């Protein structure tokens, strides 16, 4: 485990036993290693919703967000299976509609997983989460919560309905 001004790197093990590593290299690059499988990526959500926080808090909350993705992976898998069952594979459709439903399902799934990961952060930080953002207001935070919750709820409901425009 290490933490300094350059970033933060930790070996982790999820509650269901999956080993991994999370490297917060700075504001613009994160690496999550699941077992030996590396998933380097630009941290889009963390970049926007950590704006204005002190660096130490930015890195800590960003680390928890990435850990939140791993901790909520079983929930994300259950959600994607449910979407698949009710979404693109639910009944025969023309290829164009199937592709649109697949894109919609991927968007809804990503929103749900972002929501789950950030809920993990908020739960783990407790009162500090609200206190931090009260002290360092960030307009993207409300947009994130409202947007992700809206996309998740509406998208999941719409994709699950038997009769949808898609
Ligand atoms: Zn995320």
Keywords summarizing the entry:
166 residues; alpha+beta; five-stranded antiparallel β-sheet; 6 helices; 5 strands; 60% helix; 16% strand; disordered N terminus; binds zinc ion
Folded structure, characterized:
The protein has 166 residues and is an alpha+beta fold. It has one domain (44-160). 60% of the residues lie in helices and 16% in strands. The protein contains six helices and five strands, in the order βββββαααααα. A five-stranded antiparallel sheet has the order 1-2-3-4-5, with helices on one face. Helix 4 (95-125) crosses helix 5. It is globular and about 50 Å long. The model is unreliable at 1-5 (pLDDT under 50). The chain binds zinc ion. Residues 45, 65, 69, 114, 117 line the site of zinc ion.
SSE layout:
Elements (H helix, E strand, L loop, with lengths): L1 E3 L2 E7 L5 E6 L5 E5 L2 E5 L2 H6 L5 H17 L1 H14 L8 H31 L1 H9 L3 H22 L6
Antiparallel strand pairs: 1-2, 2-3, 3-4, 4-5
Helix pairs in contact: 2-4, 3-4, 4-5, 4-6
The structure holds zinc ion (ZN).
The site of zinc ion (ZN) has 5 residues, from helix 2 and helix 4.
Shape: globular
- Count the domains: 1
Instruction: Count every beta strand, where a strand is a DSSP E run of 2 or more residues.
Output: 5
What percentage of the residues does DSSP assign to strands (E)? 15-25%
List the ions, cofactors and other small molecules found in this model.
zinc ion
Overall residue-averaged pLDDT value: 86
- The arrangement of helices and strands along the chain is EEEEEHHHHHH
Largest sheet: 5 strands, antiparallel
Share of helix, binned = 55-70%
């Amino acid at each position: 485990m290490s933490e300094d001004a350059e970033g933060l790197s930790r070996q982790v093990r999820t509650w269901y036993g999956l080993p991994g590593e999370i490297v917060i290299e700075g504001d613009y690059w994160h690496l999550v290693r699941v077992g030996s499988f590396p998933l380097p990526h630009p941290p889009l959500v963390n970049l926007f919703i950590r704006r204005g926080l002190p660096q130490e808090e930015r890195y800590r909350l960003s680390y928890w967000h990435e850990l939140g993705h791993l901790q909520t992976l079983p929930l994300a898998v259950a959600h994607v299976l449910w979407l698949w069952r009710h979404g693109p594979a639910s009944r025969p459709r023309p290829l164009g509609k199937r592709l649109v439903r697949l894109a919609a399902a991927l968007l809804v799934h990503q929103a749900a997983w972002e929501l789950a990961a950030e809920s993990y952060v908020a739960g783990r930080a407790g009162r500090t989460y609200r206190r931090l953002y009260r002290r360092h207001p960030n307009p993207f935070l409300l947009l994130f919560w409202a947007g992700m919750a809206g996309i998740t709820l509406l998208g999941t409901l719409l994709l699950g309905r038997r009769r949808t425009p898609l």
